[in-house]
Design goal:
This protein has helices at residues 2-13, 15-31, 83-95, 134-140, and strands at 45-50, 58-61, 67-70, 74-77, 104-110, 114-118, 124-126, 152-156, 162-166, 178-181. It is of the alpha+beta class. It has 2 domains: 45-110, wza like fold (2-Layer Sandwich), CATH 3.30.1950; 112-181, Outer membrane lipoprotein wza domain like (Outer membrane lipoprotein wza fold like). The strands form 3 sheets. Strands 7-6-10-8-9 form a 5-stranded mixed β-sheet, with helices on one face. Strands 2-1-5 form a 3-stranded antiparallel β-sheet, with helices on one face. A two-stranded antiparallel ribbon has the order 3-4. Helix 1 (2-13) packs across helix 2 (15-31). The longest helix is centred in the N-terminal third of the chain and has 17 residues, at 15-31. The chain is elongated, with a radius of gyration of 22 Å.
Length: 186
């Protein structure tokens, strides 16, 4: 490993390192869609564990209003938060006169579905599985039609803006995403 680090340092100080630096930039930008933190939303099912308090632990659904109804504290906001943020929100609510220094853990049991439409054999709603990619989603939907552009997809995420991505194994699909496979023009 030390030899590899020295070789990397040598490339960085030589002229060869300068020609390699621009090539690394596109790889980092292509990986960006896979580095998205999961945000909770309506339809997710959570397991919440409050350590030492079995009566406060259990499985709970995120309602259409984006909240989870927990014993003792009532409604806790979940939609729009990551799991870490939801755990902190729950700890804060439990600390407000109910428990001293509560330990809370949460995990997603069932994710909300994703949707795929356009030039796939069976467009529709499908259950999300962990670490799903664009190519996995297309395979679940029966593959491409003969008219499909198999180089590009469009993904609409929570904010409602559609963005173009390459149809590759590096692009992640998240629960609630709408994936559109366009038609080719020739």
């Amino acid at each position: 490993m030390a030899a590899g680090l020295m070789a990397l340092a040598a490339c960085a100080t030589s002229g060869a390192g300068q020609s390699q630096a621009p090539a690394a930039a596109p790889a980092a930008s292509a990986a960006a869609p896979s580095e998205v933190a999961y945000v909770l939303g309506a339809g997710d099912k959570l397991r919440v564990i409050v350590y030492g308090e079995q009566d406060l632990s259990g499985e709970f659904d995120v309602t259409g209003t984006g909240k989870v109804s927990l014993p003792l504290v009532g409604q806790v906001q979940a939609a729009g938060l990551t799991l870490d943020q939801f755990e902190k929100e729950t700890r804060d609510k439990l600390s407000q006169g109910y428990l001293t220094n509560p330990k809370v853990s949460a995990e997603v049991l069932n994710y909300r579905p994703f949707y795929i439409l356009g030039e796939v054999d069976k467009p529709g709603q499908y259950p999300y599985t962990s670490d799903m990619t664009v190519l996995n989603a297309i395979a679940v939907a029966g593959g491409y039609t003969y008219r499909a552009n198999n180089d590009t997809v469009y993904i609409t995420r929570g904010n409602g803006a559609e963005a173009q991505y390459p149809a590759s194994q590096q692009v992640k699909v998240l629960p609630g995403d709408v994936v559109r496979v366009p038609e080719r023009f020739f």
